[in-house]
């Protein structure tokens, strides 16, 4: 992602946040309370939103636009991607808000009472890396605090006009961004499902009393494509890599305080100030961008992730060739 | 698909509160069904694991004692079977304080009214005066009978009646193997974890605590290395729901000393946290920093808000000091 894209994303996030309340109100008030919309089908992700973050993954240290506190920052800076190679972690799922953060499509279907016929639950299938999300529509309460936290969490939903409003609690620790920015097991989030023809937009508010100073607001849009044939269940997973054992004192890959080698990578590549890279609620808002405007100097050339979503789709500028599949390194023709 | 739905509904119901004591003041006990035959009682100090079957009731820990009567009442609501065993995971009073009342509410398997004196009669030590048997490590008995922490010793009836000094002690009750495994030098030198092998439930005691950093009693033989080793051992025993992780009701359940029941995933997070903090403090020691300097450097950053405490029986400072002391003693 280049500097302009970064700043654009900042604006997008800020617009999301500012507009979210109005958007939700508009969605909620636009139809009678009894309305229900059919959400079933294969909804594919077109990857035009935050492609780098959802696709190849974010920079190792890029917390821009996340309303994190010092605790989250300290933990994220300790994170090493090598942790994912630990045998115990190889099949751990992401938290259910990975519905919004991940790159995959959504297969949705409902399950109904066999006698009365009303919808008992909506389901969001999972391609990989997260569990199936069951949205209970039968009015059941959320479990007590002492209950297990399954990977999927526990989700209830209700229709408000044509908008399905869901609340998810009781999930495990997870990542707000795939570079180790954490969410705690005390997190909750709400989703607002709005269907507009063949487009499905989900706006979410993620709250975490442990690691966030205010709600993280994100919206994503999927497109109906019933030829996609998404599977309802995720792929099986078994740990394959056999690394040195962790008995005794053990070994957990991490960076000691002050020794994360990637801290200044974005400042070098994009000329962004470190305070922007380190994130925090203030980096979500227009005032922060305006403050940077006078001091920001774009780099001479882009060295990584320069082609963004277009490059990933094979649509690049005439004189550029983008390598996709993760590195995104640019080659000049 | 409807079958899957029903299973998920059942899974959700299995985690709900199924019995409470409405008469309890200042926080009712919560009884959580983990398996059809295994429950967890929370709110009486440390968590209590309850296994029920035709042989009677097997408990892991008995709470602090202040609510021991309520604990007995909660068990009575679950089953009319007698309490046969209490397996104590460690010497902390919030786990063994209830031993006396709960054991006396039970009935020893070794009770033989007509047996020869000294071989299981009502007054023998083997039968615990007729009360339920108490299992613990030999070091636990030492810690409970002659505490070095300044606390008064608990009454004899609360002490372990069946001790072991080897790595593990095995029982087969209620149609499943129960393995009591000594984890040396963890929370103390008398700790055990308890593995219900068929129910696939591990009671971890204070080695794994979802409400705070692990309490390490260095003066009673605890150490950070022992905590990490014990957590790694729990990970070796626990099996996650693989190769189908989305089957949320699958996998080993781990009952922490305090806080909600967990699966292997939470133990992984906890082990990683403790290991990272250990590494940080070890590095600071290697750089010549004093305990005061290390504490000021906030080595628990990233987890303090979730597991730390500024006051109370186990503060963040006490945890840092315990890690420091056990590492300095090691080097």
Task: Name the structural class of chain B.
Answer: alpha/beta
Distance separating the two termini of chain B: 58 Å
Largest sheet of chain B: 8 strands, mixed
Structural class by SSE content of chain A: alpha+beta
Oligomeric state: heterodimer
Using the 3D structure, state the CATH architecture of chain B. Answer: 4-Layer Sandwich
The CATH H-level homologous superfamily of chain B: Ribonuclease Z/Hydroxyacylglutathione hydrolase-like
- Could you say which overall geometry of chain A the principal axes of the C-alpha atoms support? globular
Shape of chain B: globular
Total strand segments of chain A: 13
Q: Please report the distance between the alpha carbons of the first and last residues of chain A.
A: 20 Å
Residues in helices of chain A, as a percent range: 10-25%
Count of folded domains of chain A: 2
Tally of individual domains of chain B: 1
- SSE succession of chain B: HEEEEEHEHHEHEEEEEHEHHHH
Strand percentage of chain A = 15-25%
Using CB atoms under 8 Å apart, which protein chain pair has the greatest interface? A-B, 60 and 54 residues
Characterise this structure.
The complex is a heterodimer of chains A (333) and B (331). Chain A has 333 residues and is an alpha+beta fold. Chain A has two domains: 3-224, no CATH class; 301-333, no CATH class. Chain A has helices at residues 3-29, 51-54, 70-78, 98-101, 265-270, 274-277, 286-293, 308-312; strands spanning 41-45, 106-112, 119-124, 133-136, 154-160, 163-169, 174-177, 181-183, 188-196, 199-207, 216-224, 320-322, 330-332. The two termini of chain A are 20 Å apart. Residues 1-21, 23-33 and 324-333 of chain A have low confidence and may be disordered. Chain B is globular. In chain B, helix 2 links the parallel strand 5 and strand 6. Chain B starts with a helix and ends with a helix. Helices cover 31% and strands 21% of the residues of chain B. Chain B is built from ten helices and 13 strands. By secondary structure, chain B is of the alpha/beta class. Chain B has one domain: 4-Layer Sandwich (Metallo-beta-lactamase, Chain A). In chain B, the strands form two sheets. Chain B has an eight-stranded mixed sheet with strand order 1-2-3-4-5-6-7-8. Classes of the chains: A alpha+beta (333), B alpha/beta (331). Chains A and B meet through helix 3 of A and helix 1, helix 6, helix 7 and helix 9 of B.
